[in-house]
Amino acid sequence: MPADSAGVPAPFLSFVAEQPLTDHHCHGVLAEGGDLEELLTEGDGGPRAGGTAFDSLPGLAFRRWCPPLLGLPSHAPVEEYAARRAELGGAEVNRRFLGASGLGALIVDTGYTPADLLSPAQTAACAGSGTAAFEIVRLEQVAESLAARGTSARDFPDAFRSALADRVARPGVVGLKSIAAYRVGLDLAPGRPSEQEVIAATGRWTGAGGGSGDGGGSAGDSPAHPVIARLAEEALHRFFIWTGADLGLPIQFHVGYGDRDVDLHRCNPLLLTPLLRALEPSGVPVMLLHNYPYHREAGYLAQVFPNVYADLGLATHNVGSRAPALLAEALEMVPLRKFLFSSDAFGLAELYYLGALLFRQALSRFLRRMLDDDDITLADAERITRLIAVGNAARAYRLS
Ligand SMILES: [Zn+2]
To answer: How far apart are the CA of 258 and the centre of ligand 1, in A?
Structure first.
C-alpha cells in the first residue's frame, strides 16, 4: 500500500487516482472571478450570517486541497488565496483546476447560464484537449422560451413537442433534466396528462406571469420583456417528462439537496415511485441527481427499478472530509452498475477539482477497506472503479 512520509496510507488507490472521470452532472465554469463565499455552498450561512462560508467542512476541504494549485501552502488563509487567485486571472485558474481534475468527459446542464458562464465545449477545453463535452437540455427552459415568445396555451403542447425534438437533435445533447423538485416537488402523478390538462395548466401559468403577452410580473423585472411566472403546474412537469420519455433520452431529476428555493421535504425520491413504475416500460434511464440526505432511498430505487441510476453530486464536496462516510452509505444498496460520478460544480473551477478529488479519496477508502478485508479482489476493485467513473455513464447516455 503506498504510504506518505509519515507512514500514513496515501489517500488514493493508484488506479482510482489515474482513472479519468465522466462528470455526468455539472454546469459551466465562470470565465473570470466568482465570489468564493457565495459559490462555495448552496447557503447564505456565510457573510450574511455574520461569518464566513469557509467555517464549514466544504470550506476546510477547500483550504486543505486548493491552495497548492495556486502555489500556496495547504490551509492558506482565504484572503491570501483570493488575492493570488485574482492575480492569476480566470483563464489560468480554470486551466489549473479543471486540468488537474482528471475529467475525461463533462455532461453539462445548460439550463441556467448567467452571462459569463462558459459553454460546455469551452468548459471542457479548460480541462484539456482530450476532454469531451456533452449537453443536458433542461425541460423547463424549453417551455419558458416558448412562453417568452408568446406561444398560446392552445398551441403550447405541439410547440413544446417540436421545440424539444429540435433541441435534442443538436450535436452533443445526450439527455434531459427536470427541476420539478424545485417547482412542485417530486410527488408527481404517474400518468401522462391529457392535452386539455396541459392547455389549461399552460393558461394558468402564462396568465399568471404574462408569458403570453398580457403583462403582469413582479417588481424589478424589465417591462420590455414578458415576465415568466414560476412554473408551479404539476401537470406541465409531467407533460415535459413524458414528452422527454417519448424521445428516448435519459432524464435527470433534481433530488434532495439544493439551495433554499427547494422544499427539501418534497424532494425525497421515494415520492417519485408511482411515476417510476409508469416510466419503467419506456426503458428510459432515470438519473437521480444529488440525493443527499436521501442517498439511501435513491440507492433503494436504483436497486428495484432497472432503469433508475443515482449519484452523490453536490453533496460530495459539501461534506468535505466526511465524503468517504457519505459515499459508503450511498453505495450500500445501489447496484454498482447504477451509480455515477458527478461534481455538480457550478461557476468555480475549484468545485470540479474538489468534487473529483474528494470522490476519488472516498472511493479509494471504500475499496481499500474491502480489499483489506478480502471482500473483493484487486480485479473487482479496478472494474468497479471503471464502472462508476465512466462505464455506467457511457451506457446510460449512450456516449460514443
Ligand atoms: Zn446542478
So the answer is: 8
Count other C-beta atoms under 10 Å from residue 5's C-beta.
Answer: 5
Q: What is the pTM of this model?
A: 0.92
Please give the distance, rounded to the nearest whole angstrom, from the Cα atom of residue 358 to the centre of ligand 1.
17
* pLDDT > 50? residue 90: yes
Distance from the CA of 313 to the center of ligand 1, in angstroms? 8
83 grid coordinates: 488575492
Q: What is the DSSP letter of 390?
A: I
What's the chain's average pLDDT? 92
DSSP assignment string, 234-248: HHHHHHHHHHHHHHT
31 CA distance to ligand 1 centroid (A)?
18
Domain ranges of the chain: 14-31+103-397, 34-88
Superfamily of domain 14-31+103-397: Metal-dependent hydrolases (3.20.20.140)
Beta-bridge partners for 29: 347
172-219: pLDDT as tens digits: 999 999 999 999 999 999 999 999 999 999 999 999 754 433 333 333
Q: Looking at residues 394-400, what average pLDDT do you find?
A: 95
Distance 42 CA to ligand 1 centre (A): 11
C-alpha 26 – ligand 1 centre gap (Å): 6
Whole-number Å distance, alpha carbon 371 to ligand 1 midpoint, is 33
